[in-house]
C-alpha cells in the first residue's frame, strides 16, 4: 500500500515539473505550433467536408442509379407481364380460331350441304310456294306412268345397240392406230342419265367415256387442284396431265432445270432422255413447247382415228355415222335409211391414278359453265362413282323406291319450262346432285313409293334453298360421309367442298334468269303435269292440296 501511494505522488510531481508554464522562455514556440496545428486541422476539416460532400454526392448518385434500375426492372417486369398477357390472348385467339375452323369443317362434313329435312330450314322458302297447287299422289302417279314410263321403255334396247356398235368401232380404231406411236384406247364405259335410268327428255343420248393411255415408254402424271399446289378459284374442279417417260423422276432432275455446261454430264439421265424435241411432244398430243396434254389435240386425234375406224367397218352396217355437233367434238349420230337416228357421245378420258375418277377432254356446256382456263386444263368427272352410289343406295331402299321417279319428274318439268322461256343456269346434273344429297340425308323408309309427293316437294324446297343461298356443293368433293364401299379417293374427300353454284355469284344476269325460270316452273307445275295426265276421277282431283311450303 505505501508503495502504491509513493508511485502516485511521483507521477503528480513529474507532471507539475514538466508543465509548460514552469518554463516560458524555453517553450516560446508552442503558440506558433498550435496555430499551424489549428490551420492544418482547419484544412483537414475542409478536406473532410469536401470528402463528405463527395461521398454524399456519390451516395445520391448511387441512390438515383438504384432507383433507375429498380424502375427499369419494374418496367421490364410489367412488359413481361404484358407480353405474357398478350401471349395468353394470342394463344386464346388461336384456340378460338381453331375451334371455329374445326366446327366449320365438322359443319361441312356433317351438315355441309343442308338437306332441307328440317321444318326450320324450309321457312326460307315460303314465298315461292305460296299459291302453288301441288299435284296429289294420284295425279303424280298417273303422270309418271303415262309420261315417264311410256317414253323410257326402249332405253335398254338403245343402250345395248349403242354399246355393241361402240365396241366394234373402238376395236377397228385400235387396228388402224400405230401401236408404237399412237395412244392406246381401252374399252368404253356408259355413264350419265341413260345408264342411271332417269333420262326422260328426247332425244335419248348415250354417254360413253373411253380411257386412253400413252404409248411406251411414256406415262401420264396427273395433278389436280386439290393436290397441294395453289389453283385459282376458277380452276377448281380441273387438273393437268403431264406426259413423262416412265423412268423419269416424278420430282424432276436438276439437269432439266439448270444448264450444266458443255463439259458436264448428268449421271442420272442420258443425253437422249434429257432432250425432247418439240415435235416429239406434239406427236404425243401435248400443247406446243410443253409436256402437258392438250385436250384440243386429243379430240382432233380421236376424231381422225374414229373416221378411219368407221371407214374400215362401214361396209358391215346399213347406216351412216357422222359427227353431229361442232361444239361437242365427241358427239356422233347414227342415221338409218328409214330417217331415224340415234345420237351418242364418245369422249376420250384419262384415268386419275388407280381410281375411277377421270379427266374428261370435253364436258357438256351450259349457260352457267365458265370458260375452260386453257386446253391443258381437264375437267374431272365422278360419273362412275355417282352411278355406283345410286346403285349401292338402291339396295337399301324399299321396293319401287321413288328417288328416281322424283328426279325424272323434276327433270321433265324443268326441261319443259326451259322450252318455253329459254335455257337457264340449272342443268340435269344440278338436279341429280340434289337427289344425291337427299339420298344420303334421309332414311331409307322415306323413299317408299307412296311418299313420292313428299319427296318431290323436298327436292323442290332443297333446290330453292340452294338457289337462295347460291350454294350447291358437289356431292363427292369434300364429303366425308361417302360410303367406304365405293373406294372413293380420300384426297377428294378431304378437299374443300366445291360450290357448283359459284358462277351465280359472278354472273347475276344468269342467276336472275335461273331463279325466274324456277319460280315460273313452280307456277306452271300443275298445268304441265295435268297436260300429260289421263283423266282422274273428280274424287281424286278434289284431293289436290294447296300447301304453302
From TrEMBL:
It comes from Scytalopus superciliaris. CDD domains: UDM1_RNF168_RNF169-like (cd22249). The keyword DNA-binding does not apply. GO terms for cellular component: nuclear outer membrane; plasma membrane. The keyword Transmembrane applies. It is found in: Cell membrane; Nucleus outer membrane. It comes from the Eukaryota. Pfam families: Mab-21_C. This is Inositol 1,4,5-trisphosphate receptor-interacting protein. Keywords: Cell membrane, Coiled coil, Glycoprotein, Membrane, Nucleus, Signal, Transmembrane, Transmembrane helix.
Amino acid at each position: 500500500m505505501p508503495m502504491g501511494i509513493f508511485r502516485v505522488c511521483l507521477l503528480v510531481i513529474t507532471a507539475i515539473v514538466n508543465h509548460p508554464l514552469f518554463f516560458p522562455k524555453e517553450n516560446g514556440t508552442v503558440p506558433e505550433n498550435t496555430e499551424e496545428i489549428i490551420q492544418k486541422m482547419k484544412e483537414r476539416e475542409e478536406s473532410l467536408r469536401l470528402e463528405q460532400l463527395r461521398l454524399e454526392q456519390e451516395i445520391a448518385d448511387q441512390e438515383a442509379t438504384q432507383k433507375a434500375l429498380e424502375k427499369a426492372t419494374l418496367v421490364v417486369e410489367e412488359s413481361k407481364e404484358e407480353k405474357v398477357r398478350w401471349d395468353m390472348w394470342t394463344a386464346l385467339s388461336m384456340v378460338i380460331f381453331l375451334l371455329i375452323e374445326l366446327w366449320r369443317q365438322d359443319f361441312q362434313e356433317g351438315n355441309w350441304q343442308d338437306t332441307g329435312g328440317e321444318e326450320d330450314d324450309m321457312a326460307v322458302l315460303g314465298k315461292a310456294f305460296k299459291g302453288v297447287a301441288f299435284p296429289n299422289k294420284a295425279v303424280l302417279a298417273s303422270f309418271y306412268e303415262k309420261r315417264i314410263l311410256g317414253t323410257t321403255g326402249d332405253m335398254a334396247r338403245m343402250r345395248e345397240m349403242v354399246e355393241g356398235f361402240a365396241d366394234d368401232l373402238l376395236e377397228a380404231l385400235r387396228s388402224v392406230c400405230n401401236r408404237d406411236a399412237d395412244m392406246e384406247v381401252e374399252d368404253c364405259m356408259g355413264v350419265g342419265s341413260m345408264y342411271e335410268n332417269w333420262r326422260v327428255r328426247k332425244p335419248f343420248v348415250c354417254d360413253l367415256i373411253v380411257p386412253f393411255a400413252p404409248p411406251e415408254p411414256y406415262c401420264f402424271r396427273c395433278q389436280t387442284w386439290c393436290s397441294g399446289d395453289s389453283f385459282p378459284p376458277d380452276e377448281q374442279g380441273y387438273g393437268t396431265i403431264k406426259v413423262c417417260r416412265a423412268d423419269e423422276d416424278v420430282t424432276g432432275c436438276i439437269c432439266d432445270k439448270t444448264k450444266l455446261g458443255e463439259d458436264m454430264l448428268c449421271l442420272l439421265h442420258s443425253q437422249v432422255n434429257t432432250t425432247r424435241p418439240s415435235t416429239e411432244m406434239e406427236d404425243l398430243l401435248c400443247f406446243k413447247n410443253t409436256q402437258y396434254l392438250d385436250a384440243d389435240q386429243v379430240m382432233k386425234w380421236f376424231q381422225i382415228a374414229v373416221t378411219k375406224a368407221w371407214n374400215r367397218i362401214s361396209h358391215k352396217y346399213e347406216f351412216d355415222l357422222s359427227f353431229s355437233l361442232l361444239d361437242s367434238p365427241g358427239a356422233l349420230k347414227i342415221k338409218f335409211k328409214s330417217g331415224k337416228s340415234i345420237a351418242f357421245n364418245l369422249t376420250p378420258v384419262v384415268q386419275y391414278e388407280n381410281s375411277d375418277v377421270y379427266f374428261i377432254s370435253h364436258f357438256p356446256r351450259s349457260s352457267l359453265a365458265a370458260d375452260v382456263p386453257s386446253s391443258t386444263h381437264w375437267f374431272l368427272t365422278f360419273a362412275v362413282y355417282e352411278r355406283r352410289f345410286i346403285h349401292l343406295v338402291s339396295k337399301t331402299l324399299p321396293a319401287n323406291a321413288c328417288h328416281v321417279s322424283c328426279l325424272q319428274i323434276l327433270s321433265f318439268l324443268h326441261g319443259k319450262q326451259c322450252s318455253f322461256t329459254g335455257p337457264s343456269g340449272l342443268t340435269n346434273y344440278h338436279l341429280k346432285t340434289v337427289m344425291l344429297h337427299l339420298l344420303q340425308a334421309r332414311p331409307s323408309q322415306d323413299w317408299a313409293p307412296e311418299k313420292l309427293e313428299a319427296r318431290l316437294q323436298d327436292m323442290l324446297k332443297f333446290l330453292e334453298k340452294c338457289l337462295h343461298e347460291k350454294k350447291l356443293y358437289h356431292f363427292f368433293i369434300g364429303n366425308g360421309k361417302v360410303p367406304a364401299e365405293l373406294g372413293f379417293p380420300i384426297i377428294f374427300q378431304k378437299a374443300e367442298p366445291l360450290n357448283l353454284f359459284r358462277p351465280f355469284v359472278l354472273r347475276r344476269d344468269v342467276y336472275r334468269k335461273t331463279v325466274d325460270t324456277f319460280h315460273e316452273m313452280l307456277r306452271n307445275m300443275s298445268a304441265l303435269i295435268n297436260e300429260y295426265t289421263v283423266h282422274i276421277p273428280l274424287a281424286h282431283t278434289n284431293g289436290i292440296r294447296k300447301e304453302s311450303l
